[in-house]
UniProtKB/TrEMBL annotation:
Biological process annotations from GO: tRNA modification
Subcellular location: Cytoplasm
UniProt family annotation: Belongs to the TmcAL family.
Encoding gene (name): tmcAL
Principal place of residence: cytoplasm
Gene Ontology annotations for the cellular component aspect, listed alphabetically: cytoplasm
Keywords from the named record: ATP-binding, Cytoplasm, Ligase, Nucleotide-binding, RNA-binding, Transferase, tRNA processing, tRNA-binding
Enzyme Commission identifier(s): 6.3.4.-
Reaction(s) this enzyme catalyzes, per UniProt: cytidine(34) in elongator tRNA(Met) + acetate + ATP = N(4)-acetylcytidine(34) in elongator tRNA(Met) + AMP + diphosphate
UniProt name for this protein: tRNA(Met) cytidine acetate ligase
Length: 399
């Protein structure tokens, strides 16, 4: 059976994700679509809107065949490490290709960009370093260094666009690892990554969908943008927990996590650097709301996303030492599968490149322990009492 892979968060699974999955299967000529999905915390440094099992259920009900969890170490990392973890897992799962959505819509500009940056690596990295020293944010420094190499030439990917950036890092990760997995891309349609909901369309970004829910406080306002199984799963999740994941919901515990430390302890946590621990600590003392807190801390140099990743690590207790101890994923954690997915895994047992884990009790390594702890902290933030759910939830089977 031929498998293609996709890297996802499904926060939540919406009509655009359904289109991506269908197009990936078609473009790759695949029998099986394998999704590597972030767990309870996401790459932009946020708690997931709904937990990973709810999002797995949405995915399987809408045509995904296998869902593996992207470990916390990579799911909450900067783009290059996020991509590295995801591509290694797809390769270990036996995928012949991977397919990502992009603003570009064509794979050639990404391959051209990789060849250019690989051949000009020293110049590129020096330009980034010099730009950062001027006080601008790292993403802006990357963009300026990139434009200094491409100039006005055409044929390269526009790395000012969020999905193009991730797409480039997927290709970079595959090239650096020497993988033979083939990159594919499809055009992102209708809604950009950060766009608000647009009347008259049935496709909206996940960001726009979440924003609309939190503004209106009702799932009715977003139902046109979700497949029916996604809407049903979200309703069930809300009935169970009475809330969806957000920093507004988690802020009381986040604030406590910050204030129980001292700044010299806060700087132990991953991504906290350059003395910002003092501002984080003082802002937590002064600000009773998350928006007030984040607006006090973010700046041109420290984007909201970068700050949120720091906060995620402070909240979960994930340190620099832990981050530096890992070189790559150590397992494939199965969250769910369809009947087709089950047949694929049964036929691939001897070819799977990492231990296949279906029970939390088998995650007996440091990376797995971090996943289990992060999941407990997620449910604690929701005010739930099922902190042991990692041990009681088997992979979801969608027959």
């Amino acid at each position: 059976m031929k498998a293609t892979g996709i890297v996802v968060e499904y926060n939540p699974f919406h009509n655009g994700h359904l289109y991506h999955a269908q197009q990936a299967r078609q473009k790759a000529g695949a029998d099986v679509v394998i999704a590597v999905m972030s767990g309870q915390f996401l790459q932009r440094g946020e708690p997931a809107f709904a937990d990973k099992w709810t999002r797995t259920e949405m995915a399987l009900a809408s045509g995904i065949d296998i869902v593996f969890e992207l470990p916390y170490v990579y799911a909450t990392a900067q783009a290059s490490d996020f991509a590295k973890g995801a591509i290694e897992l797809l390769g270990a799962a036996g995928c012949e290709s991977f397919c990502f959505g992009s603003e570009e819509g064509s794979i050639e500009p990404f391959l051209n960009t990789w060849e250019l940056l690989d051949s000009q690596r020293d110049t590129y990295e020096r330009s980034i370093h010099e730009a950062v020293q001027t006080g601008i944010s790292y993403p802006k420094a990357l963009n300026e260094a990139y434009h200094s190499l491409t100039g006005s030439r055409s044929g390269f990917a526009d790395l000012a666009k969020p999905n193009n950036i991730l797409g480039f890092h997927y290709i970079e990760a595959a090239q650096k690892s020497g993988s033979t997995i083939k990159p594919l891309t499809i055009q992102r349609i209708a809604a950009g990554y950060h766009d608000p909901i647009q009347p008259g369309s049935n496709i909206a970004s996940a960001t726009g969908i979440r924003r609309a829910f939190f503004e209106e406080g009702s799932l009715e306002g977003i139902e046109n943008y979700l497949p029916a199984p996604s809407l049903s799963a979200l309703k069930a999740f809300h009935e169970d927990y009475g809330a969806f994941g957000s920093w507004t919901q988690f802020y009381p515990l986040l604030r406590y996590s910050i204030l129980k430390e001292r700044p010299h302890n806060i700087k132990r946590f991953s991504e906290v650097a350059e003395g910002i621990e003092h501002l984080i600590f003082e802002s937590a003392k002064k600000e009773p709301t998350f928006e007030g807190f984040i607006n006090r801390v973010k700046s041109k140099r420290y984007t909201r996303t970068r700050i949120q990743r720091m906060l995620t690590h402070i909240y979960t207790g994930f340190t620099w030492d832990q981050l530096r101890s890992f070189e790559g994923p150590s397992y494939l954690r199965l969250l769910g599968m369809s009947e087709t997915g089950r047949h694929y895994l049964n036929g691939q047992k001897k070819n799977i490149g990492l231990p296949l884990i279906s029970r939390a009790a088998d995650l007996a390594d440091p990376m797995g322990e971090i996943d289990i702890h992060a999941s407990s902290m997620y449910f604690l933030g929701l005010g739930a009492d099922n902190l042991k759910r990692e041990y009681t939830t088997p992979p979801i089977y969608f027959g």
